[in-house]
Automatic annotation (TrEMBL):
Taxon lineage: Bacteria, Bacillati, Actinomycetota, Actinomycetes, Pseudonocardiales
Full protein name: Poly(3-hydroxyalkanoate) synthetase
InterPro entries listed in its UniProt record: AB_hydrolase_fold, DUF3141, PHA/PHB_synthase
Entry-linked Pfam families: DUF3141
Species of provenance: Pseudonocardia alni
Biased composition (Basic and acidic residues): 441-452
Length: 452
């Protein structure tokens, strides 16, 4: 389960957000007490190696116990081994599951409209979801028929739902810039009616934040999930590695990666980085597949995740290098020194309701990186909402627990800011809450697939 929502009750900005027990307050306030990056990375990788050894030992023991039990059927081991190899190799392109229509298309992004025909005239502010941009398909927000962030948002009463679909970079789009991405967001919102609820997942979150700071009049509410706003807060292997690499060699290593990708950042390289951060998850996932190869439910859940996780797409090189230098390395967004086309990105201009969702086990974006946003915006304290889900990074966007227990509560709040007050009755809220929970399958008694 997740922790309860917390809101600041006083407008003072002298203290950090009311961080939950697992979130160090000092980190949330931005104090630079981070360990030496090299020492931190060595310690982190040593701990991971221990976890890898433990997982291999566990799986090996389980395998031999199973082998003894099946000793009377020597051909069974070969059969299971072939099924295992086949399941690992059987990859398919991830797809969108809910019916939608592409209503705006550019070479690097498409706007998908998930609004059902019967809800086109609903008196509700439309919602635009910005998926992560980390070398994977945007379909993570409509991950499966049983696990769909889009379906949950619609069921909460926010029936006019759109999502941007980040397209794979090509030679023709390698020079796409931050300006281009912000422009497609603006075009999308104007097409949706001129004002929208923005929901930003991971990198889609900092992109939504930048847009909201530059166009506060177009943003009704801002919801950020697992979004790195203060890239240097908390303990993060990505921040430590960037600090070490860029601090010693500048942008040269990143430029070399982009050059090797023909002007784009290869999605396969991003995937390799994710796996190297938590190799025990990758190993555990494959070994658990072998253990459960005769369980069709587990095999199907494994296949769905692997189809999304292993199907990578390149990132425009110019955009990638910009974000590494300005955000990952120099942390200009939270410092207030970021400029886009000569305009300073002032987070203080954001005054709409702000909702923040962090993961208690998020090793990609620790909670302090997200919660730091509350100290920079101009949103009244009473309109800042914090929530910490019992989830890792990806679990924030597609995990059944987070979609059933955390997102409905947040989207119920967004709904309250998105309809005329005369329609916002207590009974209506309760029914929408139940509906949004039912939109996602109950995770109990189903096999879990280890994921970052």
């Amino acid at each position: 389960m997740s922790t309860a929502i917390t809101r600041r009750s006083a407008p003072s900005r002298e203290h950090g957000p009311r961080a939950l027990p697992e979130t160090p307050v000092a980190a949330a306030t931005g104090s630079d007490d981070r360990p030496d990056p090299l020492r931190y990375l060595v310690s982190y990788n040593t701990r991971n190696l221990t976890k890898v050894v433990a997982e291999v030992g566990r799986a090996t023991g389980a395998y031999w116990i199973d082998a003894v039990q099946r000793i009377a059927r020597p051909g069974d081991a070969a059969r299971r081994g072939l099924l295992w190899i086949s399941a690992m190799a059987d990859r398919r392109e991830p797809t969108w599951h809910l019916a939608n229509e592409v209503v705006l298309s550019t070479p690097f992004a498409s706007l998908r409209d998930f609004t059902a025909a019967e809800h086109r005239d609903d008196d509700v502010v439309p919602t635009l979801v910005l998926p992560p941009q980390a070398g994977h398909s945007s379909t993570v927000v409509d991950y499966s028929p049983q696990q769909s962030q889009i379906a949950m948002i619609r069921a909460s009463g926010l029936t006019k739902v759109y999502a941007l679909d980040w397209r794979p970079a090509t030679t023709a789009t390698k020079n796409v810039t931050i300006t281009d991405y912000l422009e497609v967001i603006d075009r999308s919102i104007r097409r949706m009616g001129g004002k929208a609820n923005l929901v930003g997942d991971c990198q889609g979150g900092w992109l939504a934040t930048i847009y909201a700071a530059l166009h506060p009049d177009r943003v009704n509410t801002l919801t950020l999930a697992g979004a790195p706003i203060d890239f240097h807060a908390g303990e993060s292997v990505i921040a430590a590695s960037t600090r070490l690499m860029a601090g010693t060699m500048g942008m040269a290593p990143y430029k070399a990666l982009v050059a090797a990708g023909g002007g784009n950042m290869p999605g396969s390289a991003v995937l390799s980085n994710f796996i190297s951060i938590q190799p025990q998850s990758e190993i555990s996932r494959q070994l658990q597949l072998l253990e459960n190869i005769d369980d069709p439910t587990h095999v199907e859940r494994y296949r769905v995740f692997e189809d999304w996780f292993k199907y990578t797409q390149d990132i425009p090189g110019a955009f990638y290098l910009w974000l590494v230098e300005n955000l990952f390395w120099k942390n200009r967004l939270i410092k207030g020194t970021l400029t886009v086309d000569g305009r300073t990105v002032d987070m203080g201009a954001i005054d709409c309701p702000l909702l923040l969702l962090a993961g208690s086990a998020d090793h990609i974006t620790p909670a302090p990186q997200l919660f730091a946003a509350a100290e920079k915006v101009g949103t009244p304290a009473a309109d800042v909402t914090y929530r910490t889900a019992t989830a890792g990074h990806l679990g924030l966007f597609m995990g059944r627990d987070a979609l059933r227990h955390d997102w409905p509560v947040l989207m119920e709040t967004v709904y309250g800011h998105s309809v005329p007050s005369k329609k916002d009755t207590g009974a209506g809220k309760a029914s929408r809450r139940r509906s949004s929970v039912r939109a996602v399958a109950d995770p109990r008694d189903t096999p879990r697939v280890p994921a970052p």
